[in-house]
Amino acid sequence: MGEQTQTQTQAQTQTQTHLQAQTQPHHDSTAAAAATATTPATMELTNGSSLTSSPPSKIPFRPRKIRKLSPDPKSSQIVVAETQTTPKPLATIKSTKSKAAHHQRAVPAAPRIVARSLSCEGEVEIALRHLRSADPLLAPLIDLHHAPTFDTFQTPFLALTRSILYQQLAYKAGTSIYTRFISLCGGEAGVLPETVLALTPQQLRQIGVSGRKASYLHDLARKYQNGILSDSAIVNMDDKSLFTMLTMVNGIGSWSVHMFMIFSLHRPDVLPINDLNVRKGVQLLYSLEELPRPSQMDQLCEKWRPYRSVASWYMWRLAEAKGAPSSAAAVAAGVSLPQHQQEEQHQHQHTQQPQLLDPINSILNLGACAWGQ
After folding, report:
1. Threshold 0.70, pTM exceeds
2. Dihedrals φ, ψ of 140, to 5°?
3. How far is CA 262 from CA 25, 151, 288, 305, in A?
4. How do residues 217-249 score in pLDDT, each as one tens digit?
5. What is the mean pLDDT of residues 255-274?
6. DSSP summary character for residue 58
7. Backbone angles phi, psi at 285, to 5 degrees
8. Maximum C-alpha span of the chain
9. Which of 192, 212, 307, 324 could cross-link to 319 by cystine, CB 3.0-4.6 Å?
10. What pLDDT, on the 0 to 100 scale, is given for residue 62?
11. How far apart are CA 110 and CA 87, in angstroms?
12. How far is CA 267 from CA 157, 214, 260, in A?
């Protein structure tokens, strides 16, 4: 009897174990369904409790996958679904960046004015419109004076030679020496590097050229003959390179280069920071207590770009109108004035004591008028 009871008990235990084994998958599926219905935070806590042996830093970089029950409760089929942590495809990221870059390129940039030579047709008028808009203080000055003209054309070598000959001379004396020099060379067309080198200091002294100026002329001609300078190179150089190359010539300083660039090459954006009357005009225009230093000129006149040559022309006019002595540059700029008025300027200029703002050339010499005749 006791053995029979023990046998029945073992049979019941095996039956319960068999039933639990059969119902176990359904229980696991039900638990998984409940897990997916919980909030992300709850799911993370549940996962964390089941993976206590793995620290957070060792979580794989692959997209995590979880089990999810089929919508059919009677089916025990397991489907795999990716979580929302799947990164975006690389192609999508590139596409987004490309769109952003395209949007940035689509934003219109501020128009940049590219100035031409002042001898180009209509360029002076364009310059005046720009200066009126950029600096309203210039508008009354532009209305008061006639527009400048830049219609003198000479070869660079001839213009540089002429500027050297006129240095530190009154206008009439300079013109007399220049006329004799042209005759010695056989006309302006004969003023060539080889012709100038062939002239001896004695020949040049006979027509009134000092020994120092003769050395300046020969140095310029040698740099042409050696290929360091040429007319074509000078015409095609940018302003900065041209300034560097020309100041290598003995007798040609920064002020002379600025005058050459404005009145011979007709460059539109040259600011003669060492010219006394340009500085005086800036002082008057902006009601400054003191004469601006050359180092301050660039900042004060920045708004005039890219037509600072034309604005400088009006600074000469403004300084003259206020009684400042006419500098050589002002005479050059005033070529369209009546002849008697120019003569008065030359006479007044000749009585002024030179002020050497340029290491070699006097700011108050009349050599620059060669560019304006």
Report:
1. no
2. -60, -35
3. 96, 11, 26, 14
4. 999 999 999 999 999 999 999 999 999 999 999
5. 96
6. G
7. -65, -40
8. 159
9. 324
10. 57
11. 40
12. 17, 28, 9
